Amino acid sequence: MTLSRPVRSVLYIPGSKERALDKARGLVADAIIFDLEDAVTPDAKDDARETLKAELAKGGFGNRMKIVRINGFDTDWGRADAEAFAGADIDALLLPKVNSAADLDSLAEVSGDTPLWAMMETPEGVLNAKSIAAHPRLQGIVMGTNDLVKELGCRVTPDRFALMTSLQLALLAARAAGKVIVDGVYNAFKDDEGLRAECVQGVALGFDGKTLIHPAQLDVTNEVYAPSEADLDLARRQIAAFEETEASGQGVAVVDGKIVENLHIVTAKALLAKAEAIASLEG
Q1: Is the pLDDT score of 283 beyond 80?
Q2: Do 267 and 258 meet the contact criterion of CB atoms below 8 Å apart?
């Protein structure tokens, strides 16, 4: 159940700050995570819930995805968050620190028909990634790399070697279940070069997009996660060569000295569809 809409850039916005919420209406993010968890202090949780409800009711966020990250059900606010936004004009509820499919069952009981997303940010959650990703109400997965680093007790290096097993296990689970999955945040929001390198790595691994902590990270992320003109040109030439060969009934299709098979055409068509979806969103 992969999304037909792009999720290159998924920006966290505090659910408690009216000014930030208003500014988000004009940002070029593909999706927004309205955060009621980490971005809101305990004494402001109830007020933040009401503030976010009011701002979402005003609308103006365009056709970008609207995702609300609620507090966990092991807190005093999680259930009230879920009940408050069940049936609201949003695209999904995001549950933090999902350890098992049972956590999603609990949310599903009170969230109406609203699709669910899951934060993968604990060792237990990663080890249960297959059953979590297969949950029938789940639409997407978000990697919570900061919490994973804390829980694993590992050190972060530019190649993210210590996180690679966790990232790939979650990716395998998402792809096996046909669900969307977006990479974790890059904390140094003024470091465009480092962000670009991590986005390039994320694309190579197979992520659909990346979560972001600051609007300054949007342009780089949108650029890297979008198909390049060279990618699109190759895709079009692969499709044309394959169709020409099929029509003639002779030989095999070859583009740039490489054989083109049906699996390459599936990928090429998906790439062109992604480019069209991006153009539609940005238009």
Answers
A1: no
A2: no
